[in-house]
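Issue 218. Parser rejects a valid record. Input:
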Amino acid sequence: KHSQEKLRHQASYDEVTGLPNQTMFNQQLSTAIAHAKRNQTLVGVMVLELDYYKNLATQSVNTLEEQLLQNCAERLKSSLRSGDTIGYWGGDKFVALMPQVSNVDEVAKISQRILDTAKQPFKLGEHQLNVRVNIGISIYPQDGLELDALINNAELALDRTKKAEKNSYQ
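Output the parser choked on:
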């Protein structure tokens, strides 16, 4: 029974960060979209990418990489509101779901809080790492009515962020 529970957990959550993986995140986003459609509310979706993470990963050991991801996961969770979800999609990419958003400014404030939190250096043993975050945002229903459209539009906004002004959001 313990093994079955462990397998169920591994199917839905990332082993290193403990965050929902893409499958679990997509299920939660689908539920949020259905709820928002019924109640005519907004849903915020963010795609977050760690800036310079790949460069750091090639210069550090696996344990340091895992510690960085775990610390990033904790900081991101602490930057969100109760009821919001942060997920990990692998490599240097995280996603966030804000199922009950009253307006676009609310998502902008959360994005700025994430950026401010990420500015603080990460102290991992004897190492101190500076990591920046780029954020792409989409809002249901104006940026898409379905899961794929919302994620794709958040990815497009992330690409614009990386090209225009790093360590920011669009």
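Fixed in the parser; the record now loads. Residues 22-39 form the longest helix (18 residues).
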